Amino acid sequence: MVTLAEVAHHAGVSASTVSYVLSGKRSISASTKDRVERSIRELGYHPNAGARALASSRSNIIALMVPLRTDMYVPVMMEIAIAVATTARTHGYDVLLLTGEEGPEAVRRIEGSALADAMILMDVELHDERLPLIRETDRPAVLIGLPADPTGLTCVDLDFVATGAQCVEHLFGLGHREIAVIGEAPAVYERHTGFAERTLDGLRTRAGELGVRVLHRPCEGTYDALAATLARIFDERPGTTGFVVQNESAVEPLLSLLRRQGRAIPEDVSVIAICPDQVATQASVRLTSVAIPAQEMGRQAVERVVAKLRGQDVDEVALLVPELTVRASSGPGPAKG
Amino acid sequence: MVTLAEVAHHAGVSASTVSYVLSGKRSISASTKDRVERSIRELGYHPNAGARALASSRSNIIALMVPLRTDMYVPVMMEIAIAVATTARTHGYDVLLLTGEEGPEAVRRIEGSALADAMILMDVELHDERLPLIRETDRPAVLIGLPADPTGLTCVDLDFVATGAQCVEHLFGLGHREIAVIGEAPAVYERHTGFAERTLDGLRTRAGELGVRVLHRPCEGTYDALAATLARIFDERPGTTGFVVQNESAVEPLLSLLRRQGRAIPEDVSVIAICPDQVATQASVRLTSVAIPAQEMGRQAVERVVAKLRGQDVDEVALLVPELTVRASSGPGPAKG
DNA sequence: AAGGCCAGTCGAAGCGCTTCGACGCATCTA
DNA sequence: TAGATGCGTCGAAGCGCTTCGACTGGCCTT
């Protein structure tokens, strides 16, 4: 392994000079700099991460806590994770992947061992156990998601309240007055995951204002579960003509079941999904949808965490504005009787 | 931050003693051990990762290189990644998430900086650029996937040749003699990703032996792309009665299109998928499938990498035996005429 | 011409840990 | 009873880097 000392010797300078060339923290003459940089290249030098971390107490690592459960909103998670990793690299950071399994203990471990300089938490619950720890630590942290009380925390999330409202408005605008919401799996609500509840809030509030009836049903993403849910919905509200789907994996089953029942989309029923654009455009009907900007969320989380590491101030809560794209799955509702 | 020295002082022993309690590399009396462990707990001590890495030249980190592309076989990748992270933790390792973006350079960087003790590579191409580097380094590495020449490498993968063969055998056993294969997106083949080509090999070879006609068509996972592909298939081979689907996202569109065309599953056509069990059971028809054991692959990759880190010998290539589960999407083929 | 200043460089002191050799003491062996 | 053996512990020497203070020479002031 090539060391700083060897580079220094090769370039005929002292170790500290090489270090300053690398960090740019002191001015170095152009000629020296050139020589050092050439030596670095010729020897194929890479600074030792451990030594650097020890000496500078900065590891250049950002920890990313992803949910353990792999059964829900997987594409979104994956997209965020990859966006986080690539964005982090552009700032010189690497990403440490932590699963939710360790729980709050992971936060303590990272903090104590100085393994990472900062943390990004995904899948934040309304009353997340990790939050007290995050508030105490002076290591920067950014949440992807919005807890019940974001005081003192930095959060990045889609504005799910507005998202819910937009869905209702769109359907209302088309003439729909009875809407069913196919929600996430019941477990998501039991865990009080922020986004699910907030979407619902937005939906209900706006529906109340507009005089639209809303029926919400959590639902697993399986075909069978959806069939049962759908049956119950039409049983309870036969006049339902609009659907809002929050559970990605429920999209195809829903379309397929509606078709089988002879309900045409969008002639008889309109469907609007809350999902990444990719899902919306790949579905068997091009779906009207509000996009979940997964990449953007990952990117922004990193930008914020890096800004904090630089000591810059960062707004506490950044809510991305939802964008609704009209595609082929929504159309005029029933003529008023 | 609590340091080793503080723990030592608190427990009334020397720093090295605390270190030996932690590592167990020398025997320590029960009473001393107790005292030290109590001090550790009371002070909430966590060893500094950088210092430890520097002194021991082991970082206790495993690097995981995931593909950059987020558009393909995402659930499989995510499951593997999470399995890797959780399994690694049980062995005391953390996982560093690298995207394919950096390419071979990432291998050099990790190697040079001693950031990770070992690497796990996903999404291995047949002639992957990273392989020469992996072969040279003495840092343990495990591939998830199988390159053209695995000499000197440790690989974990599903036996995709056998997988392809099993699919053909199953359909042949049911009486099907004309089979269409809905493959991965063309890009996957262009990159010569191992698993896709190997599956095809297995399919074709066994089909040749059994006298089954096989038509292979790469296909994007969108509804439209699949509709076009399907049309061409039936155009070219009207007698096709069996489908093998390798592209997860093509599953639902295929089922839906077949239904629309009035082809009943499994009465008129049989469909068999190569996908995680979860996908197979959630589809609108419970799919006969050969499972992609994503978690198992992640787990085994870690076990192997950890074994290598301990200096144990590890078989070069571990191919998991594919398991076909018969569900509702496959049935007797056309009566022989 | 003397003083001050700054850019450019160096030396040395750690950062917190692991690990090697050494030491003291008790126990065994011959 | 002398020497060998082993266990449990300690001190000290790094691991490879960053960073602080100090030094040197040139250039600007006055």
UniProtKB/TrEMBL annotation, chains A, B:
Pfam families: LacI (PF00356), Peripla_BP_3 (PF13377). Transmembrane segments: none annotated. One of its GO terms (molecular function) is DNA binding. Keywords: DNA-binding, Transcription, Transcription regulation. Residues 2-56 form the HTH lacI-type domain. Residues 3-32 form the HTH cro/C1-type domain. This is LacI family DNA-binding transcriptional regulator. It comes from Streptomyces rectiviolaceus.
